[in-house]
Amino acid sequence: MEGETLSQLLYRLEGNQPNNKGQITTKPLPEWFAAIGSLEHLLLSTLSLSSNEKKEGLVLSAPTSVISSQTLLNQLQIGILASKRSTHSLPACLESQPTELPDSILELPLNSCAPLSREPFCLVVTSKFSLVLVWGEGGFQFSFKPEIVEQVWLRLKRYLLFIQSEHLTTLEQLVEELGFRVPEYQIVVNFSRQLLQYLPNFTPVPPKTVVTVSHNKDTANTTDFDVQLLQALTHEVRTPLTTIRTLTQLLLKRVKPGPEISKHLEIIEQECTAQINRMELIFRAAELKTTTSPQHALQLVPISLEQVLQESIPRWQQQAQRRKVSLEVSLPHKLPSVVSDPAVLKQMLTNLIEQFTRNLPEGGQIQVQVSTAGNQLKLRFQTNSATQNSFFKSIGKLLIFQPDTGNLTLNPHVTKNLFRSLGCRLTVRQRQGRSEVLTVFLPLRGSPEFLV
What is the pTM for the complete model shown? Predict the structure, then answer.
């Protein structure tokens, strides 16, 4: 997909969905500057920095250089993809900036029409690790996965081949010498730790609205600030969890440990994924609080619900097995197409199962049934428990907390709003005894609400 930007490529390879699809913020992101500082710190601490002329790594970035250390500029092969008017600036250096590029820096022209020109990025390849940073659609992303970094390099390589860059052979030889290495876990941890240390310098800015004696305005300002703080905190939690999950996946793939250790690593990966999904949904809920047209943030398209369920059910079964809960899924032989956002819908349904499995005691049951209801498809989730439902306490406008388990989740009203932004409708009913029924109604393709 040559028309993809690098951020879209990363989201596709990771199987994720951008938070604000189609929107790239024009404001410098705190995470981007924190990542630049963390990268320099990581390079200085991992490279040998010898005095010989051999290059110890490659750093390709756009639209400017992200390296300001003179030591690193001497030891690394630097390439800058940019238009003529912006190539000579080195924004990572906050004081004096050279007016001409040093001979050690390769100037790589970037066509303003190319997808690569739409967002700042940085590709790093060294003998110790490889890394890609992108500030683009959906926010800031980074990955240490060798296979993902290699795909980004291949995308850049195709572009350099297209423009017939005279430097392509030099870059190819250097990449071949260095390779795409699986980093030691300390490298990823150190980068994440530095990233978090830099981020507190960029605290959320309170709303500019003047606080008056009016109680309503006071409450509105407090709520707005709480939402901004919640957005910042969810990012702070997701970053280390993503690091842990990446390291776990690398261990499972490259080290190939024994069955017992593999089982524990798989549980770690599953728990990280569940918490990352939860943080992403909390972030999205906070985002809905601050936007005037939340439905425009998602791309609602005809999708195969059968495919979504086939990809989701194995993980649901894993969640149920870990909590020693029974899960039964009943599907018709053929499912019609529905209209929604597949990635976010998968997150929402998985979050429902996660919430059920956490709240049910051992031996509890979850039944999932799928059927048609007029011009809608109905997903019915029913739980049966042998104990009373747990007590929940509200935290702010978005979250509820379960004191006896420590479970933190979105409140039912916010959950319904998120489903509504997906074109769905959620109903919740408590039945006599200890049974709860949640039903998700999805519009069928061609229904009056969504003529696609």
Answer: 0.51
